[in-house]
């Protein structure tokens, strides 16, 4: 049997592509696993989560909301909160705090 670089390249691309798919899927799994811990395995009646206002945090907020909904939690309306180090006259920060209630 001879060595064919094209076949080896095809196999390597398939393996790397598969690893990328597994890594992408693990992002949701990691969040779900973390939420299972903070909700005491989906039994706490109220869970409060906070997020920065940047795009990456909002993406995480959406993913967590989806996972929590799947486990029977409903989100209250988000509210802007002040950072602990903010001046009293400062506007609310971009921090978002959401309480999720188990229904």
**Morphology call:** globular
How many domains is the backbone divided into?
1
Total helices: the number is: 2
Task: Classify the secondary structure makeup into a structural class.
Answer: alpha+beta
Radius of gyration equals 21 Å
Helix percentage range:
40-55%
Number of strands: 4
Major pleated sheet: 4 strands, antiparallel
Provide the low-confidence segments as ranges.
Answer: 15-24
- Rounded to the nearest angstrom, the distance between the terminal CA atoms is 63 Å
Strand residue content: 15-25%
What is the string of helix and strand elements? HEHEEE
Question: Mean pLDDT score, rounded?
Answer: 74
Summarize the structure.
The chain contains 2 helices and 4 strands, in the order H-E-H-E-E-E. The protein has 103 residues and is an alpha+beta fold.
Provide a descriptive summary of the structure in words:
The protein has 103 residues and is an alpha+beta fold. It has one domain. 49% of the residues lie in helices and 17% in strands. It has 2 helices and 4 strands, in the order H-E-H-E-E-E. Strands 1, 2, 3 and 4 form a 4-stranded antiparallel beta sheet that branches.
What attributes does this structure have?
four-stranded antiparallel β-sheet, about 100 residues, alpha+beta
